[in-house]
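Researcher: Please predict.
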Amino acid sequence: MNYGFVRIAAAVPRVKVAAPLWNIQRIEALAAQAEGKGAQVVVFPELSVTGYTCQDLFHQQTLLQEAERAMLQLLEFSRGLDIIIVVGLPVEVRGSLVNCAAVVQSGQIKALVGKTYLPNYQEFYERRWFTSAEDLTPEAATWLCGQQLTVSARHIFETGEMNFGIEICEDLWAPVPPSSRLTLEGADVILNLSADNECVGKYAYVKQLVREQSARTISGYVYVGAGFGESTQDVVFGSKVLMAENGTIVAEGERNSLEEQLIISEIDIERLRSERRKNTTFAACAAQETGYGVMRTQLHTAQRDISLTREVNPYPFVPQGPELDARCEEIFAIQTRGLAQRLSHTRCEHAVIGISGGLDSTLALLVTVKTFDLLGLDRKGIVGITMPGFGTSDRTHTNAVNLMEQLGITTREISIKAACEQHFKDIGHDSAKHDVTYENSQARERTQVLMDVANQTGGMVIGTGDLSELALGWATYNGDHMSMYGVNASVPKTLVRHLVKWVAMQEGEDIRATLLDIVDTPISPELIPADEEGNITQKTEDLVGPYELHDFTLYHLLRWGFRPSKIRMLALKAFAGQYDEETVTHWLKTFCRRFFRQQFKRSCLPDGPKVGSVSLSPRGDWRMPSDACEEDWLKDLENS
């Protein structure tokens, strides 16, 4: 299966200026390589058949005739291939010369797409040689290689797997590029044949343009620039190759290479279409775009299984490198300002938090402390309560107490053991039976303590549960599930750890040591007694599965609407060598079952700030019936 991916190749051949037959041989060689590597489309630079830098030689009949001879050779070469080949060449149309992209497949030129915007820079005064495709009459046709063809800039090619459009170099720089209109007419991918020269700082600008245009149009964007062999009489061409998908660069060529390049990657059409369906602004713009009048051509692409060549990020919620610190700072700011507004609105100067010595309560406490500092409130107004139970370990208890003291908040310790034992007697439960009643009664007792202390102090209970726990329903209903404001509600578990570590790096030595030890502590609800050495026996990830896998599933299921079989394929690529297919499938099924069956807990969530593109708030981000069926999601895994 290809799971909605199409494989596209961007090829930069070595060229000889004004030598079409020599150039076409290089084009054929790269096209054959692309076909052999499973590419369904291969795109070459602007005017790649003749070379871009022919200048006044474009007025020579010899060059135009040789370009046509070269195209005849390419057509013969393509007869036995399935791949779609897109090359650039000059084409005479009713006495005008047009800078064109020819779409070739199986021995035919399927269409000619003309360039719309012609640069008038000193080094590229294209209007000296070419006419804009928009200056042609709509029915303007020409004969090329024995075929009568209409030349248009308004053309969409439909393959069954994707729809693509074409623009040429300068078109991308226009205030309203042709690609903007083509995507509104249904193009999923834009191919840009370019011959952009090198200039200090220009590559970063082009990369930004490509990224932003793909984001604005919710499309795949493939940009292929001319390379070695073009004339360097006045400028140099540096083989710019960029592939973007909805604002993200998925592949990039080697700049300023003297060698030919063939860059191959995949564009996720399902992902793009999913985003467009959810983005009502895109549909509204498409509805307004009337009268553009595109031509449509049907092509075919070979059906084949695709093994991804592009990288898949195993931690989609966690940026890499320097961006991680910036992300943590931004999320922490959203959390603190969300809580600040709620405290200010309610005129509340006290907050109550249950501190377990685990990651989630630690992050909630750090957010609350920062918020009190921002509002100029006394940290003593924060009441941190550690509530030792039957499974509390020495390590987490020590860290909880140390952290509260180091941060200068009001510290209270209220054991829940006696209350729970009395409760077991009241309901006739055997305390030696460590079942769900035994565990959940502790969570509910802790929540009752927090709520009652909040009433005593006129405070607000700050929730500690995170996004991953909400997705899995890993919370006791009306226990840790409930609070008055949940600051972590849309922060996934894989990111919580980094946020705590980020704060730790800004604190003094003692607080930092405590925070880093909390980061290194196994995740546990600590509801089952510790072992004889006082070590944690109940580890969450042993029970519900690795959070890194669940967060990966959560992101792709909610953000893009992917089916489970596709998520499994992506996970196996992302976590290659770490998890095998059996393990990934097992925890995917666990996620699907829990996600559907635990929706009732998410339907009545406390308020909390949204920090990212994925959230489970029932008031806007995720609305799902609590009795929806998961069978089809599980069948998708079993039948693929």
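Model: The first helix runs from residue 20 to 36.
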